[in-house]
Write a structure and sequence with these properties.
9 strands, six-stranded mixed sheet, alpha/beta, Rossmann fold, 3 helices
Length: 178
């Protein structure tokens, strides 16, 4: 199925609803990490909008770094093969790290990422995801913080793409065949 045959069918989560929830997540994280320096590890590219909104709701001293891993190509099915395309700039040893993810689907990407980052001996490592599709999980992994649990549908918008398109949409929408 080519990108041109796909279209946004319905808004699942409105921009206003996202903003409200992101503010709530920011408040929880600010409470939980009070007094600590936190490194936000953003998983490119889908989580960039979430990261930029979330960090402005953190009443904490934060730094950011980015990782890119392979996930879906031109398909909406996970290959199960995870590859680091871009690694962190600095060491995370002894640091409080928070992985900022857009969506957890099968969990394969995050499982790999979590194990990889844990082996670098951070002081702590937690996961915040905007979206979670627990029905699709293939490996055991749970986010520490989650914006929304959603049904098993392929979604785009607020940073999430299909074939690099639709990231600019302010809400989360379901993608379907024309
Ligand atoms: P997982 O390894 O958990 O199956 O997949 C994680 C990655 O797959 C996400 O970071 C995201 O890039 C992509 N992904 C999974 N589900 C969706 C979805 O519904 N929409 C979009 N746009 N990407 C998804």
């Amino acid at each position: 199925m080519s990108a041109s045959k796909k279209q946004v069918s319905k808004v699942l989560i409105s921009p206003e609803h996202i903003q409200k929830r992101v503010a709530e997540l920011g408040a929880s994280l600010s409470d939980d990490y009070r007094g600590k320096d936190v490194l936000l590890i953003c998983v490119l590219k889908g989580a960039v909008i979430f990261l930029s909104d979330l960090m402005r709701h953190l009443d904490l001293s934060v730094e950011i770094d980015f990782m890119a891993v392979s996930s879906y190509g031109a398909s909406t099915e996970s290959s199960g093969v995870v590859r680091i395309l871009k690694d962190l700039e600095y060491s995370i040893e002894g640091r409080h790290c928070l992985i900022v993810e857009d969506i957890i689907d099968t969990g394969l990407t995050l499982k790999y990422l979590e194990e990889n980052l844990r082996s670098r001996q951070p002081a702590s490592l937690k996961i915040v995801t905007l979206l979670d599709k627990p029905k699709r999980r293939k490996v055991k992994i749970e986010p520490d913080y989650c914006g929304f649990t959603i049904p098993d549908e392929f979604v785009v918008g607020y940073g999430l793409d299909y074939n690099e398109k639709f990231r600019e949409l302010p809400g989360i929408s379901v993608l379907s065949d024309r």
